[in-house]
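Re: that chain you flagged

S.,

Sorry for the slow reply, it's been a week of failed gels. I finally had a moment to sit down with the sequence you sent. For the record, here it is as I used it:
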Amino acid sequence: MTATPPPRTSGDDDGVHPAVPRIRSPLRYVVLTFTLSIPFWIAGALTNRQLLPALPVSALGILCMVGAASILVYRENGLTGVTELLKRSFDFKRVKAKIWYAPIIFLMPCIMVVSYIVMRLMGSLVPVPQFSLVTALALFAAFFIGALGEELGWSGYAIDPLQDRFGALRGALLLGVIWAVWHVIPLLEAQRSLVFIAWWSLGTLAARVIITWLYNNTGKSVFVAALFHTMINLTWQLFPINGSFYDPRVTGVITAAVAVVVVIVWGPSRLVRDRNARKSAVQTTVSPTTAAELAFRGGPGRAKIWKGEVLTEEARR
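Prediction finished late last night. Pasting the structure tokens below so you have them in one place:
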């Protein structure tokens, strides 16, 4: 009798939250997302209305990300799978180390402050930011809903199989390219130039690396990805007055610099610091032959072989 292979599981099993058996295809997800977006792009082309300054009607296509993910998860795991996917909207309990909320909430405002200072130093006549707290909170709520619509797809469905196949950095960059390409039509409908789109895409690639870094270090929380995504959009819209002086050449380069630091410090393969790897690097591992020689030279009890390691009396002291 031939044994039946166990079902594949998604990459969101972090050891605490067990993965639901399923087979995920990022390619099918991308194709379906872009297909569902076509009516929104057409609607944006047929009307000049904007939801917010520089935010065309076609931006409502963000619903297609969660829509595509829900359709595929339903085919793979039924209503139970869709329910589990949607529950990840508020999976903040995955965040064990609360210190991660510092970069999640404050990294993008810091990037925008640095962008503002750089632009002023470059001679740009950037006005003093003007917005009310009520406006900021209203925008935050709207952008958070929109970010959930995107991240339930990008992070909740697509990023894990990409990381499993290509590693964290390359998977994030690949998803970042797809993310940027999806936005090209809405950006064109918002009358953005090709130069603007190119620099904006640089910042988008970097932002996806940062989102993946935060996602991986917070128990793979979609809530975290959506919250940081919200801060990206919120700080853009408030910079400094309805995004009127937003310059992707400056912000994109600064965001890319932050992403480079993240990759260097946390490593490209997982974008996560492996304490166990650092701990094992300190330990000395030698061959059994070397261990036997040390034991012979030191006499009985002078050396101990444990899990492939040699612990001498000097080390034990």
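What I noticed first: Residues 283-316 form one domain.

Talk soon,
D.
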